[in-house]
Amino acid sequence: MVEYTPTEMMTVSAARALKNDDVCFVGIGMPSAACNLARLTHAPDITLIYESGTIGTKPDVLPLSIGDGELCETAVNTVAVPEMFRYWLQGGKISVGFLGAAQLDKYGNINTTVIGDYDNPKVRLPGGGGAPEIATSCGEVFLVMKQSKRGFVNKIDFVTSLGHGKGGDDRASYGVDTKGPSRLITDLCIMEPHPVGKQFVVTSIHPGVTREEIIENTGWDVEFADEVAETAIPSEKELQVLRELHARTAKAHGDQQ
Amino acid sequence: MVARFMSLKEAVASCVKDGDTISMEGFTHLIPHAAGHEIIRQGIKDLTLIRMTPDMIYDQLIGAGCAKKLIFSWGGNPGVGSLHRLRDAYEKEWPTKLEIEEHSHAAMANAYDAGAAGLPCAVFKGYRGAELPRVNPNIKFIECPFTGESLAAVPAIRPDVTVVHAQKANKKGDVLFEGIVGVQKEAVLAAKKSIITVEEIVDDFGDISPNAVMLPNWAVTAIVEVPGGAHPSYAQGYYKRDNAFYKAWDPIARDREAFQAWIEEHVINGGPEDFAAKREANKG
User: Could you please report the per-residue DSSP string of B200-233?
Assistant: First the structure.
């Protein structure tokens, strides 16, 4: 019997969403782990791009920042940041943006700016960084985030980055012609947008997780697809590669003092 | 005017004054920390600080009371957490009130590019469906005169002074950047004056690509040799990012007294010569 944590299940499921021929703009944190796991398992030729300008990077350890030296040393090419955002992202060369969030709603709109009022925030978060344009310029967007009532809310406090807006074809009304969030991977399940309404619908539940757990950890009324799959458990290889990646990363980031 | 070689003290004293708009760039890589310390030591006030990712360097300047405004697009300690001095200034006005103007990375990158290009504003496909335009009056939308498409516009960035760090300058004062080059070139070309700290000054660059990112000496104001001057950021080819110190910064910055003690010990009683040892310690 293979043992794994809910976070490992989430990272493995997120990695599986990526294809070998994807060109992926990688957010830091959970997306970075998932994207590199994909590259080290089923998608060896995937092009990973970090907003520091590194294109086709193959880091041996996960970077602490989006500009760690190893990203550049192992990249096919490193370009200036204006070129990254203008030619590669805005120019429509990137197939998938992989993002996390502090808060999101059922349409995949993301908040990474403030909790509370913008001028008098309860919590001031780091801000949008590259996300507002990653969310609209990449061919599609995958979201990865641990599920909780605090994070999965009915109404986000600030729309840092557009998902499906108010649902339906609202996204297109902003002049955005990319697909937007097409998959949300959590530690409990996988959700995909309803084909018409665009609200997230649970399409796959991780093994051992109940529908009640998903409902309890979501701030909106959860919808389940007519046929809900059970997510395949992580394989021994997926877990081994992921754990080795994390072990190398911990060693590299702790060793330098 | 050809670049002049100076001491860091002289460069900051002659280029930076109270109330200036200043950009200190470096996208994780080549962040000019030694120059930031010199600005704190000289007690320069009321600065408008511009930087895409105001990480530890601006946490220090803000906590030390040098800034009145921050223009930025992502304010955190990457992979670690909040910038506690930035938050304390913004939320509690300690040590002084801090105004913020917030953008996205794409907006700032385009605004630097526009500044370097001599344009009044940057135009790009951005902020679509996003809420920052509601709270930042410096984000507007214009219509493309040819297609009618709605495009975001932000003012060009035109700093009084840009400060960056690079690997090398040659004896004539030309500057070479390698690795993650961020927006350094654009930030220098957009500014009225520039200070560039470098790891070393060499006779010539040797066998480099004709396309290597380089600023000719006539495009730069001051050059200062500060080995290790980017620490705890890094200079590719010289030393690695001191990720352990970025983590160690969190508890220091979290506490006002711990922060002040750190600034007193390492900045007020320190100097640019202290950075060389950091370079040695982070080789590898």
Answer: EEES---S--TTSEEE-GGG-SEEEE-TTTTTTS
Q: What is the pLDDT of residues B233-278, one digit of tens each?
A: 999 999 999 989 999 999 999 999 999 999 999 999 999 999 999 9
Which domains can be identified in chain B, with CATH numbers? 4-43+158-281 (3.40.1080.10), 105-155 (no CATH)
ipTM: 0.96
**Architecture category of domain A6-187+233-254 in CATH:** 3-Layer(aba) Sandwich (3.40)
Query: Rounded to the nearest 5°, which phi and psi values hold at B170?
Result: -95, 180
Give the gap in angstroms from C-alpha A173 to the nearest C-alpha of chain B.
9
Nearest CA in chain A to B177: A80
Q: What residues of B are in contact with residue A89 (Cβ under 8 Å)?
A: 106
pLDDT score of A257: 35
SS3 state at A230 = strand
Residue B264 has phi, psi (to 5 degrees) of -60, -50
CA distance A229 to chain B (A): 33
Query: CA-CA distance, B5 to B173, in Å (whole number)?
Result: 8
Structure tokens at A126: 């780091």
